[in-house]
Specification:
The chain has helices at 3-34, 40-66, 70-98, 108-118, 122-147, 154-182. The chain is mostly helical and 185 residues long. It folds into 2 domains: 1-34; 38-182, Ferritin, core subunit, four-helix bundle (Ferritin), CATH 1.20.1260.10. The longest helix has 32 residues, at 3-34.
Length: 185
């Protein structure tokens, strides 16, 4: 093969390789910018909220089994369905945006609270559940509000707004039921 043809072929391959590298770099930067901001606050919120929601789902399962009021069973079913979907969404965002999934572990205090709830029945169960879930929801609202001041993805911002609205409404409903069902005159 003549030398000029070899050099020409080598030059073409070099230009082609360089073009592929440039296009690859552009596509990487496009993908990175399409995913939006990356922040430690958002990552921590999503990771924490997966565990937090998991406890709420477990509490809701108990309420579906043990509650005596159908309204509470229905509310527990809604909590379980909504928060299970949110867990899946947050896990997928953690994987896509931060390259990991949240591990799910309850703290010792959470385990103790769950044990107290598991051992209750009837009115005692319902009162404990309504109070515990109200506190649990208030904690989620506080965390959702706090992360909104950080640089977060629009999807996370929407989720935090959804959490704040839904859980504020549920707390109000739980307080109403506590008064209607269990307040003594």
């Amino acid at each position: 093969m003549p030398r000029s043809r070899t050099m020409s072929s080598l030059g073409s391959r070099l230009v082609l390789g360089l073009a592929v590298a440039v296009l690859g770099a552009l596509s990487i930067s496009t993908v990175a910018s399409a995913t939006g901001p990356r922040s430690a606050a958002e990552r921590a919120f999503l990771t924490d909220m997966v565990g937090h929601h998991t406890m709420a789902v477990e509490m809701a399962k108990l309420a579906k089994e043990k509650a005596t009021h159908q309204e509470l069973k229905d509310a527990a079913d809604k909590i379980g369905t909504t928060q299970t979907a949110e867990i899946a969404r947050m896990q997928s965002w953690l994987k896509a945006w931060y390259g990991h999934r949240a591990s799910i572990k309850m703290s010792h205090g959470d385990e103790q609270q769950m044990h107290m709830l598991e051992n209750a029945s009837g009115a005692e169960f319902e009162v404990r559940f309504l109070v515990m879930m109200s506190v649990h929801h208030a904690q989620a609202i506080e965390r959702a509000r706090a992360v909104r001041s950080a640089r977060i993805h629009p999807a996370t911002r929407k989720l935090t707004g959804d959490i704040i609205r839904a859980q504020r409404s549920e707390i109000a409903q739980f307080q109403e039921w506590l008064v209607d069902w269990y307040a003594t005159s």
